[in-house]
Amino acid sequence: MQNKRAIKERVFSVELKSKGNLKNVTLTNASIDSVLLEGTIGELVYASFMEGVLLEVVGKNGIIRVDLGAEEIQKLTIDNRLEAKKQ
Hints:
Strand content: 35-45%
């Protein structure tokens, strides 16, 4: 996963140890271009930020990775608090 992107998009990956851990995958052919992935990574083993730029959530049955940094979450939290105080 890349550190910087020209477009503000997030990349993610889901790695499961077994197809049995995948509960639902929905790909629609309708006018709505949505996709739904549902499953379980099992009991939480750990969650951490890898190199500060990749959120990794590891369970007994799989791993979810999102290119989202700890600093971004902190900044969003601060920005949201400031915005809430303005209202």
